[in-house]
Amino acid sequence: MKKQLKNIVKFTDDYTNEDRIILRDHLAMERTKLANERTLLSYLRSSLYLLLGGIGLVGIREKLFEDLKIVGYIAIGLSVVFLVVGIVRFIQLKRHLRNFK
Asked: Which of 3, 18, 20, 44 has the most beta carbons within 10 angstroms of its beta carbon?
């Protein structure tokens, strides 16, 4: 049983049992790392959608939709904000997890 457990633990980064954290806590931290990466990808996806929508609205040439260019510029600005916020939150949580070990 212990040998099987050791094989499972090898799939995670670098678990060494130094009595600082138990296996359950280590696995919870691994899940948190994966969730952090997933959240970063969600921010990136949202940022790209806003960028594409903004470019599409800015590129409209008809006079009827001329006022939508403002919305397009706002969407492009928000896409940059989403990207920066996502990266900052990712780095903060990554540092926090590194310091926790």
From this structure: 44
CB within 8 Å of 83: residues ≥ 6 apart: 43, 44, 47
- The residue count for the chain: 101
By the 10 Å C-beta count (0-12 exposed, 13-18 middle, 19+ buried), 34 is classed as exposed
Q: What is the pLDDT of residues 7-62, one digit of tens each?
A: 544 445 554 545 566 788 878 888 999 999 999 999 999 999 999 999 999 998 88
CB 16 within 8 A of CB 55: no
Q: Give the residue numbers spanning the domain of 61.
A: 2-100
Looking at the structure of the chain, the number of domains it has is 1
At residue 74, the 3 state secondary structure works out as helix
Backbone angles phi, psi at 30, to 5 degrees: -65, -40
Q: 62 Cβ partners below 8 Å, 6+ apart? A: none
Amino acid identity of residue 16, one-letter, is T
